[in-house]
Design brief:
It is flat, with a radius of gyration of 23 Å. It is about 80% helix and about 0% strand. It folds into two domains: about 1-50; about 50-105. With about 110 residues, the protein is an all-alpha fold.
């Protein structure tokens, strides 16, 4: 855990322009809006229970976006030619998830 002395020494080593940039970015209103949206989402979640179909739709859209982004970023380029290990990992992970899902309902 850093002490106040360590933080002060580290702050002295940061260039002035970067320190100003950090201070401006912390005070930027978008950061406060993002923080407030987390609290607002929690309050709405506590006060209102959405229908199951809406929850399933949002979960499907978000998880599909995550999977599409992961495949786009993690799938090797044609020049790398490392598709076999990636495919083996994808098949193994899918089998594990299906096995866990199957054993949960037995």
């Amino acid at each position: 855990m850093p002490t106040d002395t360590n933080v002060a020494i580290a702050a002295r080593n940061i260039p002035t322009a970067l320190r100003i940039s950090i201070a401006v970015s912390v005070l930027h209103p978008c950061r406060w809006i993002a923080a407030a949206s987390i609290v607002a989402g929690w309050v709405v979640g506590e006060l209102w229970q959405p229908p199951v179909i809406a929850t399933a739709a949002v979960l499907g859209i978000v998880s599909g976006g995550i999977i599409a982004h992961t495949i786009k970023e993690e799938l090797p380029q044609r020049s790398e030619e490392r598709f076999s290990p990636w495919l083996a990992g994808a098949i193994s992970y899918t089998a594990l998830i299906l096995l866990l899902d199957y054993t949960e309902f037995r």
